[in-house]
Design brief:
- The structure is a single chain.
- The protein is mainly alpha-helical.
- It has a domain at about 15-50: Winged helix-like DNA-binding domain superfamily/Winged helix DNA-binding domain (Arc Repressor Mutant, subunit A), CATH 1.10.10.10.
- The chain has helices at about 15-25, 30-35, 40-50.
- The longest helix is centred in the last third of the chain and has 12 residues, at about 40-50.
C-alpha cells in the first residue's frame, strides 16, 4: 500500500503555538488562554484555527469533547 508523503512532513511550531495548543488540549477557552499567555483572544483564535482546522495537525493532538 503506498504511503501518503503529506502525512510525513514535519511542521515547525513556535513556542507560542505550542503553548496555545497545550492549553487548548487542557480545555481552556480562548479568552482564558489569552489572559494566561498575555495575548489577545483574536490571536489565540487565529493560532487555534490555523493549527487545528488545517490539514496539518500536530502529532498526537486530539480535541476533547
Amino acid at each position: 500500500m503506498p504511503r501518503d508523503n503529506d502525512c510525513e512532513r514535519n511542521v515547525a511550531l513556535s513556542q507560542r503555538e505550542i503553548s496555545c495548543l497545550r492549553w487548548l488540549a487542557r480545555g481552556k477557552l480562548s479568552w482564558e488562554m489569552g489572559k494566561i499567555m498575555n495575548i489577545s483572544e483574536n490571536t489565540v483564535n487565529f493560532i487555534s484555527k490555523m493549527r487545528c482546522e488545517s490539514s496539518v495537525r500536530p502529532a498526537g493532538f486530539r480535541r476533547s469533547l
